[in-house]
Amino acid sequence: MIVEIVNLLKKEYLYKQKLASQLEDPYKVLISCLLSLRTKDEVTFKATTKLFQLAKTPEQMSKLKVKDIEKAIYPVGFYKTKARRIKGISKILFDNYNSNVPADFDELLKFNGVGRKTANIVITYGFGKPGIAVDTHVHRISNRLGLVKTKNPHDTEFALKKILPKKYWIVFNKLLVKHGQQTCRPIGPRCFQCVVNDYCKKVGVDKRYYEKI
């Protein structure tokens, strides 16, 4: 069932909107992900754009004042903490990694503020290596569909790895994020227009939303 769901979502989002799976700069992916925590996508995008206008490399970023980073990324959530982390991580990358973001999952976890979701996103979008990045969308929709029955993103990641063929790992996050933003929303999901409605268990969905079908 999970493969059928992935293929339907690929047709709905990747083909229709031409979201080509292209590798991105690992450093930009890392910084963007750090900024995205508890922050809306549009705010994250603006903050990332402004920040990279000031500095594009770990060396340049490490030389910025924390106050300048704060000003550039405001109003992202916890912007003061994130500014210190960005400067700190950038300095470590410059001093110890020749300004290169490591392509190793466990190595990424050593950085302050980098958890499994961030590490998976860097590994998949920055280096094209297999990984399942589980954010709120992936966790919620995977449970709502009935693919997994888990209580937190950490457990969801490992549960999905048991049932999802490895060749779909990279694209899975992108598909479910798009689906979560446009159709399978946290509140008021548009079940009546969902392309995977026939496969969905609708766990936790108010009945009135799918009576419209």
Write the SSE topology:
Layout: H1 2-17, H2 26-36, H3 41-54, H4 58-62, H5 66-73, H6 79-96, H7 105-108, H8 116-127, H9 136-145, H10 153-163, H11 169-182
Largest sheet: none
The CATH superfamily of the largest domain turns out to be Hypothetical protein, domain 2
Predict the CATH topology of the largest domain: Endonuclease III, domain 1
CATH architecture heading of the largest domain: Orthogonal Bundle
- The first-to-last residue Cα distance is 21 Å
Name the beta content range: under 5%
Helix share, percent: 55-70%
Written as H for each helix and E for each strand, in order along the chain, the element string is HHHHHHHHHHH
In the CATH scheme, the class of the largest domain would be Mainly Alpha
Computed over alpha carbons, the radius of gyration is 18 Å
Characterise this structure.
With 213 residues, the chain is mostly helical. It has two domains: 95 residues, Helix-hairpin-Helix base-excision DNA repair enzymes (C-terminal) (Endonuclease Iii, domain 2, Orthogonal Bundle); 102 residues, Hypothetical protein, domain 2 (Endonuclease III, domain 1, Orthogonal Bundle). 58% of the residues lie in helices and 0% in strands. It is built from eleven helices and no strands. Helix 1 crosses helix 11, helix 5 packs across helix 6 and helix 9 packs across helix 10. The longest helix has 18 residues. The chain is elongated. The protein starts with a helix and ends in a 31-residue tail after the last helix. The model has no long low-confidence stretch (mean pLDDT 93).
